[in-house]
Amino acid sequence: MKRSSLWQANLSKLPTAASEFLSTLNEIHPSVSFTMELEDKNRLPFLGMEIIKNGSQLDTKVYKKPTDTGLLLHYQSHVDVKYKHSLLKTMLNRIQAFLELEAFPSRMRTS
Predict the structure, then answer these.
(1) Is the dihedral of CA 41, 42, 44, 50 positive or negative?
(2) Would you list the domain boundaries of the chain?
(3) CB of 84 within 8 A of CB of 73?
(4) How confident is the model at residue 5 (pLDDT cuts 50, 70, 90)?
(5) Considering the entire predicted model, what is its pTM?
(6) For 35, phi and psi rounded to 5 degrees?
(7) Is the dihedral of CA 76, 82, 83, 84 positive or negative?
(8) C-beta separation of 37 from 44 below 8 A
(9) Closest of 53, 52, 91 to residue 71, by C-alpha
(10) Which range, of 31-35, 45-49, 50-54, averages the lowest pLDDT?
(11) What is the C-alpha to C-alpha distance for residues 90 and 71, in angstroms, rounded to an integer?
(12) Taking the alpha carbons of 18, 43, 103, 64 in that order, is the dihedral positive or negative?
């Protein structure tokens, strides 16, 4: 099976290629801005988790940005109750997904 030339790129050029792709995305519309995280010391923040490369295994832990205040939504704020319930469901789903990864670490193997 022949691989696309995109996947045959030298891995050492990945940060440059990723930066170029990020620039292309950010040129689409002036009101949309994307950011990118790169691995640092075998750690990569991704979707609220920190993925840690530990040999041939990936470990995870909850990731909070340094700017995180911990505030999501004050329950007595004037927001429709459906949004309050949705926020709660979202947080519970994230916890469940994280706990499933902890319970079944074989799903996170890198090799």
Answers:
(1) negative
(2) 1-36, 42-108
(3) yes
(4) very low
(5) 0.52
(6) -125, 170
(7) positive
(8) yes
(9) 91
(10) 45-49
(11) 15
(12) negative
The predicted pLDDT at position 108 comes to 53
Residue owning tokens 């750690």: 43
* Cross-strand pairs, 45: 50
Structure-token pair, residue 6: 């995109």
CA dist., res. 91 & res. 73, Å (int): 12
The token duo for 80 is: 């429709």
HEC profile for the chain?
A: CCCCCCCCCCHHHHHHHHHHHHHHHHCCCCCCCCCCCCCECCEEEECCEEEEEECCEEEEEECCCCCCCCCCCCCCCCCCHHHHHHHHHHHHHHHHHHHHHHHCHHHHECC
Look up residue 43 and give its two tokens.
Answer: 């750690």
